[in-house]
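Structure first, sequence second, as always.
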């Protein structure tokens, strides 16, 4: 098998590696003529991402007896070590060397324009896998889930990271509530779906100014902390236009049904704060936008779209700790 390429100057390849760093110690990489994909799994949090090979590599060449596809497992920290050497790089080449039992990805890094210097890093490949072996890892397998009830664009990740950092010292879980009026709340919890303020039907959000408004309320011996975001964007679902909702025989997307009949109603899910923090580590790659999709009683899915790379995105799948 052969694999050779030069990396684009924006180093999308390493941005994808960097996003994997907080998920697990190893990652899986899938190389095909048209796609470069990464996969990782850690406990209850799954992540996969990638993009068209033309956005990641130039002068890309791949050959193998398995439909020109190559699957490898590598240590993330060794790949990120190479990334640090690329800060002043003017050109980075990559090729696969050695036999399958002792293969490596070799990176040749050229720095400086005039008196240039060349650095070579050989990163060992833990294993080269067959297509069947890669399928067995389930690293590239997207979970089968129903259409989400609500899609909402997240506020700046740095703000959310500060919020969850505070939450982590108070609780292990957070209740995520979103609706189709651009509202999102995060509420700490001890592992139950109890939300203070629900007895009056307000969910604690009505009558507050737009923007970020954290509050603290007493709950028995502990405190329940709630952070509210407003004026967020709810992406429109193009596959099922809203104008088709008056057709009773049309296949209606759950979000469009909710938008028409109950846009103020919150969809909720309880997830581990630690899992949410791992998703928010993607702020390092400076994403263009991050969309949260909530499927009550099942999962929360996050789509992280890379800046200036149309086809490159990361997908994080977090099963709920409890439904509502």
């Amino acid at each position: 098998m052969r694999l050779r390429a030069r990396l684009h100057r924006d180093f999308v390849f390493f941005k994808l590696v960097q996003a994997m760093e907080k998920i697990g110690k190893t990652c899986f990489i899938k190389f095909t003529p048209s796609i470069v994909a990464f996969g990782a799994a850690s406990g209850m949090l799954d992540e996969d991402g990638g993009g068209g090979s033309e956005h990641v590599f130039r002068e890309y060449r791949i050959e193998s007896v398995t439909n020109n596809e190559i699957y490898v497992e590598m240590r993330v920290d060794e790949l990120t070590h190479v990334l640090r050497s690329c800060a002043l790089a003017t050109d980075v080449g990559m090729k696969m060397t050695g036999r399958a039992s002792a293969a490596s990805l070799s990176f040749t890094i050229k720095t400086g324009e005039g008196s240039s210097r060349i650095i070579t890093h050989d990163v060992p490949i833990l294993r080269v896998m067959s297509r069947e072996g890669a399928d067995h890892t389930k690293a590239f397998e997207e979970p089968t889930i129903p259409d989400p009830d609500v899609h909402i664009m997240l506020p700046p990740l740095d703000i959310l990271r500060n919020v969850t950092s505070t939450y982590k010292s108070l609780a292990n879980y957070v209740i995520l509530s979103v609706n189709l009026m651009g509202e999102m709340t995060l509420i700490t919890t001890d592992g139950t779906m109890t939300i203070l303020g629900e007895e009056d039907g307000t969910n604690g959000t009505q009558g507050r100014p737009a923007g970020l408004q954290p509050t603290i309320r007493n709950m028995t011996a502990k405190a329940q902390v709630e952070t509210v975001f407003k004026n967020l964007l709810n992406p429109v679902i193009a596959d099922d236009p809203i104008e088709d909702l008056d057709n009773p025989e049309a296949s209606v997307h759950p979000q469009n049904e909710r938008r028409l009949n109950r846009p103020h109603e919150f969809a909720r899910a309880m997830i581990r704060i630690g899992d949410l923090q791992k998703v928010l580590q993607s702020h390092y790659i400076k994403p263009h936008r991050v969309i949260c999709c909530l499927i009550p009683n099942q999962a929360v899915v996050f789509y992280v779209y890379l800046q200036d790379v149309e086809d490159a995105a990361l997908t994080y799948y977090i099963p709920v700790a409890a439904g509502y």
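Margin note: The chain has a mean pLDDT of 81.
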